[in-house]
Structures are given as structure tokens and as C-alpha cells.
Amino acid sequence: MGIQYLDGVRLYRVLSAGLQKVLEREDHLNKINIFPVPDADTGTNMAYTLSTIKENLQQNVHSNIGDMSILIADSALDGARGNAGSILAQFLVGLSEGLHDKAKVTAQQFADAVKTGKQYAYQALLHPTEGTILTVISEWSDALNRLSTKYSDFVEVLARALHVAQKSLKDTPKKLKVLARAGVVDAGGQGFVDLLNGIQDFISDGKIRKITIPRITKSKPKEVNFNEKYQYCTECVISGENINRIKLRDHLSQMGDSLIIAGTKHKAKIHIHTDQPKTVFDICKTFGEIKNDKADDMLQQQKDAHKQTKPIALVVDSTADLPEEIIDEKNIHIVPVRLNFGDNHYIDKVTMTSKEFWAELIKNPNHPKTSQPTPNDFRRQYQFLATHYESAISIHLPAKSSGTFQSALTASKALTTFPTTIIDGNCVSIGTGLIAVRAAEAIEDGRSMDEIIKIIEQAKALTKIYILLDNLDSAVKGGRVPKYKKTIADTLKISPILSLSAEGTVITDGKLLGKKNIDDRFIKYINKKIAYSESYRIGIVHGNCEERARKFEQYYINEIGKENVFFSQIGPGLGSHAGTNAIAIAVQKLA
């Protein structure tokens, strides 16, 4: 029997079937990802976009295809990632526009709606490029419109149109030279054809297998020179009234390339490659409220895609306060915390550097508030890593002082086929950083997962951080210390030394009276904790007092050697509570 109509339930089911096929092909799509940037994430982005639709709507399926298509489009905009994911989301927005007033549709009505989806997809790009997913969508749409005038059966129409899409995909290297040189078809176009193949399989047998991500042997993508001019793949969603997408495009077009603006006048998804994500977000804020803002480092992604050889990825949150050169050298992946000064929202070390944080702390009457990365932030990171690594270790702020650990744990549980071990670092700032360095070294040495976890637990036990506060102003403003304690400390000229307990809670480890020679006395305090007959690493971070902190650095270089001393700046995770002129020193005994 043929299929004479499509309603909301059937639309949801066929998309779910298509999703299954894309998930199965995720690694292959990443491998052939060449255009516009060879960062090996097209499969991940398309899978994430489609998975968001399923997760958001599986309890909210409508029989009315117009209502269902609107929910699908809205969810796709929220979850859209990367070029291909954003184009696919915009196609679904256009499709919903074509279906919005229908309860169910014939093949010809569906073909008309697909044509609208095609038009929307092209309109989303400032400079549409043929030989990509756009071409495949276009030629598939044209075929649907031709065939639907001859056949009323969806089975017949979709099967014949699929052959056209497959040929269109095969021809993409003829239209785009970069694909021809690499000997691949367009990854986004392949993902769209995989989606259609999954739909066709479902129509043929009427069954949708359980949506799971199969275990795939990781393979390296095509080796291609990374010529991208910009570092960050920057995205956000704007919600507002009468969003002027033409004006928005004019504002953003000078900020980078690969610009895609998908959506409607009420919700728009922004995708752009840029070196100035903060400026991009500031522009977007003038058009409405932004959410789901992120800026992925494409240089790091390229390194993972083409250069990594170790099976285990290492992740920390941005509060680890490691020097940038160490993060790069040790291939440590960062999930940033969020912060805000009043109504102004930032992504730690992406849209606000540590240096900018301290400048803002001094001048802004609003005291900063930090918030942990969301489970979605972690899930996006883990999903990308899953395409290039066999497993991951993720080390974070203590569970007793932050929700970061729980966010990471929640995300890891959602990715059942990518083993991710979430570890409570029981430390903060550069202390967590030193623990992560030991983990990175164990990974470099080729240790097993069990061995690495044992080394991390040992490093945790042998790492202690000592934080010398200049005053308690920020601690009071941040709500961590009662005001009366600040009054007592100011009156008695007490500088508290904070640390963390074995359980990860902040404790007062000691105090120094008076300000005279306080740095020398702080060094003496810490030296009581160190047996210089043993080997140590020392991490030093400062709250906007670099010249002063450099004296600590030089002291420990003289004591234990330059290779074992790490120097950086306190970020907002600790800085919001420690305040200016704070010095933190982490001591790690090397087993």
C-alpha cells in the first residue's frame, strides 16, 4: 500500500528514522568534512541538531503537521550547530512556513513546502556556495516538485527523489574544487542524503530502531591544510520581536565569514567564524535576548581532528587557571564557566579574558556572579571529543562548592557510548590545573584509564592551594563571608589564608597580621608545608598584581627550577571571591 498523506506524527517518525542514519554515519561525516573549514565536526553538528529535535519533542508529538513542523523548526534553531546544522535548521524553518496552516499534506503539498524550505536555506547565507548541502537540498526539492505532479504516493515520490539527491551529492566535487582536490563529496550534503536514506528505510520497512549512537572505530579525517582566517566558530540564538535579519546581517558581515542567519522574525540562529565573539554577541544583544551562546575554538578542533594520537581526552573547566601555553602543549580541553556583571553576560576566557575581568571588577559597580557551564555545554564538548577519542577524563571544581561537577556528570550520563570519567578535583584555580597536568602526562605516557585515575587521585592528595587575600571585600560582596568578619579583619589588619579541605570545602588555613613584609611571611608560611628534599611543582596565580606575583615566581624558580613553576592570572571563578591583589600558590608534591 502507498502513503497518500503525511501528518504530524508521521513527520516526527520519519525524522527520527533519518536521525538514526545520521548518527550511524557521524564518524564518516566528520572524516570527510572539508568545506568550509576542515575541522572534522560536520557529523557531530548535524547529529546534535537532529538529536535536539528528538529530545525536545518526543513527549510533545502533534497529529497536526503544521503544529508539529513549527515545534520541529523551533527546536532545530535552539540546537543548530555549525554550518550544516544551521542550514538544516533554516531548511526546517522554511518547511514549517510551508506547512503551518495544514493538518496533513499530500505529496504535492509537501513538495511545495520543501520548496519554501529550500528558499529559506539559501536566504540564510550571505554568500551561498554550490556544491554543498544547499545544492543537494535544491536538486532534491526540484525533483520532488516534478515527481509530485505525476505520482500521489509518498513512497514513489520520495524513492525517486532520493536517487536525484544521491546523484547531486556525487556531483558536488564537480562544483567545488576543494572537494575534488580532497577526493570527497560535501559532508553536509552527505549528511542530508543519509537523512533521506534513513527516511526511505523507514518507509520501506515501517520500523524505527531505538535511537542510539553505535560504537564506531575512530578514523582520521582527510588531511587538509587549515587555512581558516578566524579562530572561533561563534553561535547564539536571538529571541525578540520583529528581528530585522537584513540589518543584523549587515552588522555581522564585517565580523568574519561563514555567516549564517537562520530563523524567523521572532527567533534567529546566528553562526559565524570570527576572532571577536564578544563583539558578535554585543551586536546580537541589540536585536533581542540572546541564549545558547558559544564560541568553539576551531584551531583546537583542527588539532584534535588531525594530530592527536592518544585515545583519552582530558577536559577541565576554565577555572583551572593554567597558562595558555600549557593548555595547548598538553592538549587540555576547556569548558568555560559563565559570568555576568549586572545584565552583561560573558563566557570566561572567550568573550572576557582574565585581564578584562580584573579591569571590569575595578570599575563596575555590579559585583560579578559566576555560573557553572550547563550540561549542554559539556555535552557539546563530549560529543565532539567522541568523534576523535575513545574516552575522556573530566576534572572539575569541587561538587560541594559548585554545580560544575554535576553538570559534567549529567552530560556524561547522556552519552552512554562515550565513556567519560568525571572527577571532583577537590581544589580550585591553579591547584586544579596542576592536577590536570599530571593527568595529561599520564595520558602522554600511554597509561591505561585505571592507571590514570589512580595517578589523578594521588595528585589530588598531594596538591594543596593557599590563597592570600588582601581583604574580604569581594568575599562579602559574593556572599561567601559575613560582613562582620570583614569588619573584624579590617580592624585587626588580618589577611586570611584560605585553602580547601579534603572534601573540597573552603577553609581558613591560617592568617597573617599586618601588611608589613606580608609576601615574605606568606612564603615562610608555605615553606613550612614543603620539604625541599622532595620534588615539587608550584603554581602561582595573581589577582591583577603581576609585578608582585613575579617575585614569588622568581623565588620558587630559584628553589625548584623553572620547569616546575607555573605562572598565570586568577580568572573569574576564584577572582569573584578573592578580589584584587590576591595571591594563590598551589603546592604539588611529585610522587
Word description of this protein:
With 591 residues, the protein is an alpha+beta fold. It folds into four domains: 200 residues, DhaL domain (Serine Threonine Protein Phosphatase 5, Tetratricopeptide repeat, Alpha Horseshoe); 71 residues, Alpha-Beta Plaits (2-Layer Sandwich), CATH 3.30.70; 163 residues, Rossmann fold; 127 residues, Hypothetical Protein Tm841, Chain: A,domain 3. 49% of the residues lie in helices and 18% in strands. It contains 25 helices and 19 strands. The strands form five sheets. The chain has a six-stranded mixed beta sheet with strand order 16-15-14-19-17-18, with helices on both faces. The chain has a four-stranded antiparallel beta sheet with strand order 4-5-3-6, with helices on both faces. A four-stranded parallel beta sheet has the order 8-7-12-13, with helices on both faces. About 2% of the residues have low confidence.
Quick synopsis:
This protein is of the alpha+beta class and 591 residues long. It contains 25 helices and 19 strands.
Largest sheet: 6 strands, mixed
Identify the CATH architecture of the largest domain.
Alpha Horseshoe
Distance between the termini: 71 Å
CATH topology of the largest domain: Serine Threonine Protein Phosphatase 5, Tetratricopeptide repeat
- Low-confidence runs of at least 5 consecutive residues: 208-221
Number of strands: 19
Discrete helix count: 25
Radius of gyration: 27 Å
Q: How would you describe the shape?
A: elongated
Main structural class: alpha+beta
How many domains would you count in the coordinates? 4
> What is the CATH class designation of the largest domain?
Mainly Alpha
The helical percent reads 40-55%
Strand arrangement across the biggest beta sheet: 16-15-14-19-17-18
| CATH homologous superfamily assignment of the largest domain | DhaL domain
What proportion of the residues form beta strands (DSSP E)? Answer: 15-25%
Q: Estimate the mean pLDDT confidence.
A: 89
